[in-house]
Amino acid sequence: MKPFLSIITINRNNADGLRQTMESVLSQKCAKPFEYIIIDGASTDGSVDVIKEFLSKKKYASKISYWVSEKDSGIYNAMNKGIAHSNGVLVGILNSGDTFKENAFENLYELNKASPDAILYGAWKGIENGVFKTGLCVSAAMIPQKMIAHEAAFVPKSIYDKYGVYDESFKVAGDYDCFSRFYKNNVEFIFLDKFILNHDLCGISHVNQRVTALETEQVQIKYGFRPPLTKLQKLRRKAKDLYLNFTSKK
Fold this sequence. Notes:
single chain; 9 strands; 10 helices; alpha/beta; globular
């Protein structure tokens, strides 16, 4: 039977986080069958052992439709691998370290049946070292200014097929680029009005904040959300980058 929902987890050397993520996914209840796909980036910390442990349990093994542990070229390459192997009507991507809240899949089938071409999305709670720090609850109408909680989004596979997947040239803003592309093509977004997951604030986009800011600006210019940089702004940016590179080497 074709699954209704495909959940993809990408991981690299985060065995403890992967265990928590897998437990949160595999314990979910869904009105229709769902599959779980795990893309591991050749981890050396025991992550593969965690995957095999879950596979050894009969109640979980049937839900894990595909997994692999091999080198990749980055997080968006890993995400695209997962999408390529997905068979569900809806696709959700949950990074290792993030955990779904109870009943995260509730009402997805009914909402998708009513609006099959819509992206369904909710909010997340930001967790740092086990402590609540912040929340993200952004309307899709704000995409020209900022990204929604894409980890809490479920995208119809047909939308990826029609408008494309993640641009692997980005380091941290490939999700913003992808969802901006959906937005510019007038894809419908439906807010679920609830917290879908706990998000690990130690992820790459939070650590590399300068890269995130620069790539976010690049996306906004690309899709016409803001005007291109003037020559003076480019010169100031170049001077600032040279200064930061110089001071970082001291």
